[in-house]
Specification:
mainly alpha; 17 helices; transmembrane helix; AbrB_fam
């Protein structure tokens, strides 16, 4: 219990410090870095596995509360970008894994699994079944996840704000950046104005109860990201048909902090030491992630007409709930990001092991 309390306090301090410093996705990034540092130094960071489920449920509830009838009509537009994103990502990530294999001492199967845009645990477990070095896969997947959380919010804010200013032709990069950062807070303010204080508390309680029941059901039937998906769908139904789906901004911040803690507490001193042996492949992986994400995001935005920031976040190889939460902070369309991220996650888990098996045997 003492370790849990200390871990949460450190995560809260790191998260809210980063928010005060106006770091993009600061609550998540700050909590992740502070808890990772704490765990590397002491090895005492601890968060129960149940918290991951509750965090996913809360993230799904927050996304669902922002879903409108227009979002449902727009779902038919998601098929094309989803197919494009998944197929492009598989091809480019396989290419990145092959390049890593050719210029490092890591074997082909390990390189391919390390480059796969799936979860750390999922890819590590699956890779061991196919003869890969699961410890290297886990370390490189950790590098991928932490790099995405630390670098991508700032990178995407920079790219989106500069392209927006360029497209508008007014040269006012500062205004574009300000508009981007204030987009989600404007949405939250609009939502808050719908209800009186009493209605907010009642709707919040109903939303959380529905999200918890649906999320636990999704978790029990063991579908990928089931807790978040079922929670999002259930609260989305509340929002669309009954107009009572509501989650406060403060709860979103707390959810982001716990999401960051969950990532940070996985980083250990042993992982840090192990990074010495994978510095080159980790660097290749990091550069590859950035290039692949930008290429796919720009392609999706151009072909499908989705906003650039939404396309970039949807193609970022982070967690489904993590990217959706960050989307709200950076002015992206969180429901669309969640849908495309879920499509990526399911397809990677379902297809990547089969593809890697045949590619490795062919090569």
């Amino acid at each position: 219990m003492f370790k849990l309390i200390v871990t949460v306090i450190i995560g809260l301090i790191g998260g809210f410090t980063a928010l005060r410093l106006k770091v993009p996705a600061g609550a998540m990034v700050g909590a992740m870095l502070s808890v990772a540092l704490f765990n590397v130094i002491t090895g005492n960071a601890y968060l129960p596995e149940d918290v991951r489920i509750v965090t996913q449920i809360a993230a799904g509830a927050f996304i669902g509360a922002g879903i409108t009838y227009k979002d449902i009509l727009d779902l038919r537009l998601m098929i094309k970008p989803a197919v494009l994103m998944v197929s492009s990502m598989i091809i480019l990530d396989l290419l990145m894994g092959y390049i890593m294999y050719k210029i490092t001492s890591i074997d082909l199967i390990t390189s391919l699994f390390a480059s796969a845009p799936g979860g750390i645990v999922d890819m590590s477990l699956i890779s061991s079944d196919l003869g890969a070095d699961s410890s290297k896969v886990a370390i490189l997947q950790m590098v991928r996840l932490m790099s995405v959380m630390i670098l991508f919010p700032s990178l995407m804010k920079f790219i989106s704000s500069h392209l927006t200013a360029w497209k508008n032709g007014n040269g006012s990069k500062k205004e574009a950046c300000s508009d981007l950062l204030s987009a989600s807070s404007e949405v939250d303010e609009t939502v808050n104005l719908k209800y009186t204080t009493k209605e907010k508390y009642v709707n919040l309680a109903l939303t959380m109860l529905v999200a918890l029941a649906a999320g636990l059901l999704g978790y029990k039937i063991k579908i990928p990201a089931g807790a978040m998906t079922f929670s999002m769908i259930a609260v989305g139904i509340l929002s669309i048909f009954f107009k009572i789906g509501y989650m406060s901004v403060n709860i979103r911040r707390i959810t982001q902090v716990f999401a960051g803690i969950l990532i940070g507490e996985r980083m250990t001193f042993a992982d840090l030491i192990s990074l010495k042996s994978v510095i080159l492949p980790a660097f290749i992986l990091l550069i590859g992630i950035i290039v692949v994400n930008l290429c796919i995001g720009l392609l999706i935005s151009k072909v499908s007409g989705l906003e650039l920031i939404t396309s970039l976040l949807a193609s970022a190889p982070g967690g489904v709930s993590d990217m959706a939460l960050i989307a709200r902070d950076l002015g992206g369309d969180a429901p669309k990001v969640a849908i495309l991220q879920l499509a990526r996650y399911i397809c990677v888990i379902a297809l990547f092991p089969i593809i890697i098996k045949y590619v490795s045997s062919w090569l």
